[in-house]
C-alpha cells in the first residue's frame, strides 16, 4: 500500500460506482432505458445531463427529468415507476459489471491495517448493500451509505460517528470532490472510469491531493 498517502488516515471513504465497480457508462445508459418511451431528443438530452452530474441521486434526477426534460406536472406514480424501472436495470448491471483493478487487494490490505472503511455513494443504499454483499466486498466496510441521503449527508454521518479521526475520500466525480471539500477532508481522484466532462475532470484533478488511474496506483 502507498503508506505515504493512506497510512496517515484513520478512515477511508470510498465512492462506489467508477471506483469499486466499473458501472458508470452502463448506469448512465440505464437512465435512458428507463425513460425510453419519451421522444428520442428528450432521452438523449437527459442521458447527457446524467453523465455530467454523476454521483447525484436517482431520486433527484428523475424528478428533474419529469420537471425539466419532459415538462410534465409531477406525478408520484409515474415518478416511482421510473425509479422501479431504473432499479431493475441496475440490478442486472451490477450482476455483470467488473470490480475495478486493485479494489479487492486494497480493501484487504486496509482492513488488515485496521483502517475503518466506509462507502458514501449517490447510489441507492439498500441496493448498494445487496450488491456489495453479493460481490463479497461488504465485509470490509464498517458501514455503507447511499441515497436517498446525499453524499454530503452520508459523509457527515461517518465523520460525526468518528470524531477526531483523520479521513480521506476516494472518488471519481465532481460531487465527490465537492463533498470532501465541504467537510474539510482530503480527496483522491480516480480517473479511469469517470464519464464526466473535461472541465469537471480538470476541476477534480486540481482539487485532489493525488490523481490515480485505478486503485492499483495506491498499492
Automatic annotation (TrEMBL):
KW Hydrolase (keyword) present: yes
This protein's record includes keyword Hydrolase: yes
Domain of life according to the entry: Bacteria
InterPro entries: HAD-like_hydrolase_sf, HAD-like_sf, HAD-SF_hydro_IA, HAD_2, HAD_sf, PGP-like_dom2
UniProt KW keywords: Hydrolase
One MF annotation (Gene Ontology) recorded for this entry: hydrolase activity
Pfam family, one: HAD_2
CDD domains documented for this protein: HAD_like (cd01427)
Signal peptide: none
Protein's UniProt name: HAD superfamily hydrolase (TIGR01549 family)
Organism: Sporosarcina psychrophila
Amino acid at each position: 500500500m502507498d503508506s505515504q498517502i493512506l497510512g496517515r488516515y484513520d478512515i477511508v471513504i470510498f465512492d462506489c460506482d467508477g471506483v469499486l465497480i466499473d458501472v458508470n457508462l452502463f448506469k448512465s445508459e440505464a437512465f435512458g432505458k428507463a425513460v425510453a418511451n419519451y421522444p428520442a431528443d428528450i432521452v438523449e438530452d437527459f442521458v447527457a445531463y446524467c453523465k455530467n452530474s454523476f454521483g447525484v441521486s436517482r431520486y433527484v434526477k428523475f424528478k428533474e427529468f419529469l420537471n425539466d426534460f419532459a415538462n410534465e406536472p409531477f406525478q408520484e406514480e409515474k415518478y416511482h415507476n421510473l425509479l422501479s424501472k431504473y432499479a431493475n436495470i441496475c440490478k442486472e448491471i451490477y450482476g455483470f459489471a467488473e470490480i475495478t483493478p486493485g479494489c479487492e487487494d486494497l480493501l484487504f490490505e486496509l482492513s488488515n491495517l485496521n483502517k475503518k472503511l466506509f462507502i458514501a455513494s449517490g447510489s441507492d443504499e439498500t441496493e448498494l448493500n445487496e450488491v456489495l454483499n453479493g460481490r463479497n466486498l461488504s465485509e470490509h466496510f464498517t458501514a455503507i451509505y447511499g441515497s436517498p441521503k446525499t453524499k454530503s449527508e452520508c459523509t457527515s454521518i461517518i465523520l460525526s460517528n468518528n470524531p477526531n479521526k483523520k479521513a480521506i475520500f476516494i472518488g471519481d466525480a465532481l460531487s465527490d470532490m465537492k463533498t470532501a471539500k465541504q467537510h474539510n477532508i482530503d480527496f483522491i481522484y480516480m480517473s479511469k472510469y469517470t464519464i464526466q466532462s473535461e472541465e469537471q475532470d480538470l476541476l477534480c484533478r486540481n482539487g485532489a491531493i493525488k490523481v490515480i488511474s485505478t486503485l492499483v496506483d495506491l498499492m
